[in-house]
Amino acid sequence: MKNLPKVDAVIIGGGWSGLLMAKELGARTPLSIAVLERGGPRKLADYLGGMDELEFNVRFRMMQDYSQETVTLRYTTRDRAVPIRQLGNFLPGTGTGGAGEHWGAVCPRYVADLFELYTKTVERYGAKKLPEDHAIVDWGVTWNEIEPYYTRGDKLLGVSGKAGNIKGKLIAGGNPFEGARSEEYPTPPMKLPYASALFENAAKSLGYHPYPNPSATISQAYTNPDGISRPGCAYCGFCDRFGCMIGAKAQPTNTLLPLVEKQKSVSLRNNCAVRRIVFDKNAKRARGVQYIDAGGEECFQPADLVVLGSWTLNNTRLLLLSGIGQQYDPSTGKGAVGRNLTHQVNAPTQVFVDKPLNRFMGAAATGICVSDFDGDSFDHSNLPFLRGGTFRVAGTGFQPIVSFGLVPPTVKARWGSEWKKAAIEGYDRVATIGFAGEHIAYKTHYFDLDPRYKDHLGDPLLRMTLDWRENELKMVEFANAKAAELARAMGAKAVIPAPSFERYDTRRYQSTHVQGGTIMGKSPEASVVNPWGQSWELPNLFIMGASTFPQNGAANPTTSVLAFSYRTADAIIGRYLKSPAALA
Questions:
Q1: Buried b vs exposed e over 361-380: b needs ≥16 C-beta within 10 Å?
Q2: Sign of the dihedral through C-alpha 425, 429, 433, 434
Q3: Residue 513 bears catalytic tag
Q4: Pseudo-torsion of CA 179, 181, 184, 190, nearest 10°?
Q5: Would you state the pLDDT for residue 43?
Q6: Chain-centre distance of CA 49, in angstroms?
Q7: Which residues are registered as beta bridge partners of 431?
Q8: Eight-class DSSP state of 481
Q9: Which of 17, 131, 357, 536 pairs as cysteine with 524 (C-beta 3.0–4.6 A)?
Q10: What CA–CA distance (Å, rounded) separates 97 from 253?
């Protein structure tokens, strides 16, 4: 093994969290910093040659190679797990920028009570309302503590939107159910696609409160506090699963990488696969990381500070492979590493109308949302489930390959001339009412290492034990009924409801929003990191990203990931470096 010269800090992962931490440490401290990214380099120029739907949206050019590393899945501990062989239920990114390069740039915040979910739920409904075998916990952070960091994240990205609650004052046209914000969004809302306008009018007619979807693909030219300038969106329709060819969509490569590259104290190393965090158990300190470099050589990078900032599954797997912390055991409830695995509940309803919708234009994050049924915005006393989610109609830009083939339920043929004719006629006359719901944490949903299957390097694969439970199934039933009501108000000629949610299905995309495994909390018995992202076991190890989230809100997590990453950076710079010890 090649021993490298020591650095002050090593950061694992070159996506949103890793590059944000590198930018903050590089600009505000004299530390020498190495960023290790498992994938290849990326930059804006890579996306200028055109948007190839087949390569990016069918062959998933920007995603992790499942032939070399995947995960296994089982529904219960009684089942034998099997490998997920094809990208389906989520799409982990790789390369500089990670999933932040191919994301859709949808930028809502979590509802304010999510951070105190256990306390707030019991206060309103009593403990008996909680689902059997739940693992709901408070995060150890309140809305008021995290909100200023949300604002910093919004300014970094230049998020386009309309506030609904500024310092407790409700604002017409925004989301009245959101937590109190300190400021308006940095840029105004995106233009409104026709299908979204129909949805907005339908929601208003039913007494709901539609508002523009917050978007990090920005509506107009913007310069952020770091001096990074980006143009407004051209509504080309190639956002989700693509890098933006003009840089209107906020990506790590156009918001953070230009700053990191200017900092001489920061070194970004691509094609470096970290296999272990090396630590001294007696001294309770991480010593550095072991990784395979771009040339295939095994290296040891010593460092005084280790920051883990990769995707949820990779964060959790690396901790398990390294033997850091006690692995969670569902039979005893002891241990914390691997617990509280959650995904996001997505249920799309297809709405056929009799007018062209110009679906080929748009941006993944443009559209209209309804949050009247998000979180605990509505009374659950007489409902068979807790929590909820948001409804959204977006003008994502529907590419002709992956979006082709939807036909009204009156068309019985599934191939041939009749089906082709209906599919061509229906392509621009169908809108999707998307429902994104919370996923409650359960004691039986967790990560561990698979005892049978290994990756191309010979390391055990990560195993997921996960299935839908009654709470989520009942929530989807409720959501489907509301979506059908909204569809009728839009003037639907036909409706195809969301598919059945009988079992967790790896073939169905549920978003790349997977949480848990290294969760934050108030005590080391039930969590891996404290509320500042610092390891309870190794004080010089900090962990960032959605793996630290104890449960999943209905909102997409990226803005929350950025908010907590900013908070961790401030804790390291303002407190830890001055006195390297436990912060809690």
A1: bbbbbbbbbbbbbbbbbeeb
A2: positive
A3: yes
A4: -30
A5: 85
A6: 28
A7: 351
A8: H
A9: 536
A10: 6
What is residue 116's predicted lDDT score, i.e. its pLDDT? 98
Give the tokens for residue 492: 């639907």
Answer for the pair 325, 316: CB distance below 8 angstroms, yes or no.
Answer: no
Number of Cβ within 10 Å of residue 399's Cβ equals 21
* Cβ–Cβ under 8 Å, residues 182 and 384: no
Residues in the chain: 584
Measured distance CA(554)–CA(343) in Å, rounded:
10
User: How big is the CA angle at 391 (ends 252 and 550), to the nearest 5 degrees?
Assistant: 60
**Beta strands 345-352 and 494-496: pairing type?**
antiparallel
Q: What pLDDT is recorded for position 49?
A: 77
Is-contact 453 433, C-beta < 8 A? no
Give one DSSP letter per residue of 224-259, joined into a string. Answer: -TTS-EEPPP--BS--TTS--SSS-B--HHHHTHHH
**Segments in the chain below pLDDT 70:** none
Using CA atoms, how far apart are residues 508 and 212, in angstroms rounded to an integer? Answer: 27
Q: Which residues contact 428 (CB under 8 A, 6 or more apart)?
A: 356, 357, 358, 359, 360
State how far the Cα of 438 lies from the Cα of 472, in Å rounded to an integer: 8
Residue 151's closest CA among 178, 120, 114, 127? 178
Rounded to a whole number, what is the largest CA-CA distance in the chain?
72
Q: Choose the catalytic residue: 343, 439, 445, 513.
A: 513
In sequence order, which ranges of 243-400 are alpha helices (DSSP H)?
A: 252-255, 257-262, 312-322
Residue 284: which of 476, 50, 540, 478 has the closest Cα? 540
Q: Which residue has the tokens 């590259």?
A: 261
Q: CA–CA separation, 302 vs 321, rounded Å?
A: 18
Task: Give residue 140's region: left, alpha or beta (phi > 0; psi -120 to 50).
Answer: left
pLDDT at 75: 97
- Rounded Cα gap, residues 297 and 295, in angstroms: 6
What is the per-residue pLDDT for 236?
A: 93
Which residues, 6 or more positions from 29, have their beta carbon under 8 angstroms from its beta carbon?
Answer: 573, 577
Q: Which residue in 43, 21, 36 sits closest to 101, CA to CA?
A: 43
